[in-house]
Amino acid sequence: MAIRGMASSAEHSQGLKGKSNVRRSQANDLDLREKKTWPKDCSEVIRDRVSGVFFIQPTDLRQIIVYCDFSTSDGWTVLQGNHKDTGITWAEFWSTHRYGFGNVQENYWPGMEYMHQIAKQKVYQVKFVIYDSMGSMKYSDYNLFGVEDESKG
């Protein structure tokens, strides 16, 4: 499952590159430290647009690590990775589902709280991608996606 912002943002910043396959553009590191701006989602990454692991910083939240899919030019923020033959059972406590688990490069769930914080920033489109046992891809796009605050049930 991945989301993509449908409205363009005036605040563009860039991804990170360095250790642990997190992307950072070295040219503007000083700018990032001075302005303290980070992409709010993968659609705002403007440099090194190669699929992989990036830091983003949703509004009013600390930086989090997500997988960005740039196989199309739009920049999708991947919200779930669940591959065949995974060791993850997904039978976790609520607190684990709330704040996430797994390895962002493989099988992971970023957490309902982080999904809510990302999704409340602007209007998003969601895309579900599923591969069958023969490796054929199927997908479905929806134009509106949101995750309510936990207090709303």
From TrEMBL:
InterPro entries: Fibrinogen-like_C (IPR036056), Fibrinogen_a/b/g_C_1 (IPR014716), Fibrinogen_a/b/g_C_dom (IPR002181), Fibrinogen_C-term_domain (IPR050373). It comes from the Eukaryota. It holds the Pfam family Fibrinogen_C. One of its GO terms (cellular component) is extracellular space. Residues 33-153 form the Fibrinogen C-terminal domain. Residues 1-30 are annotated as: Disordered. PANTHER family: FIBRINOGEN C-TERMINAL DOMAIN-CONTAINING PROTEIN, FIBRINOGEN/TENASCIN/ANGIOPOEITIN. This is Fibrinogen C-terminal domain-containing protein. It comes from Alligator mississippiensis.
